[in-house]
Amino acid sequence: LSPQEHGLDFQRLLDASAYKERYRQDMIRWGEEKRGADPGFFCRMAVEGAAQPVVSDARRLSDVQWFRDIYGDAVQTVRVVATEETRKRRNWVFVAGVDDAESECGLDQGVAFDWVITNDGDRRSLDEQLETLLRSLRNRL
Q1: What is the pTM of this model?
Q2: Where are the transmembrane segments (predicted)?
Q3: How buried is residue 60: exposed, middle or buried, by Cβ count under 10 Å (0-12/13-18/19+)?
């Protein structure tokens, strides 16, 4: 919604480009204003019209709590981690005021994740972890 309201190119905001970085802090600020007025705003939008919602990018404790309140035990939380070294190899560069904001690290504490997947570039390990996760989810259906 923020890109639509501000005339931004949504597709360009999805990649790791200078375009995205130019608008990132403004988008974060806009999102904070929306959450301040209505903590469930983005959560409801994420599942709108979905028969079996899968949300791939919760950012805050309030998001996780909203989903748990609405969907109960059906909620499975998955955290994907990579070392800082791996992230730097993938061209990540820390930006103060952005990468240490709640929108980026709001779930670094306070959530007992059901699953933690390590993605440090070992394809075989990643595939094994994901297969285990998928088997477990299928067994819950």
Answers
A1: 0.75
A2: none
A3: buried
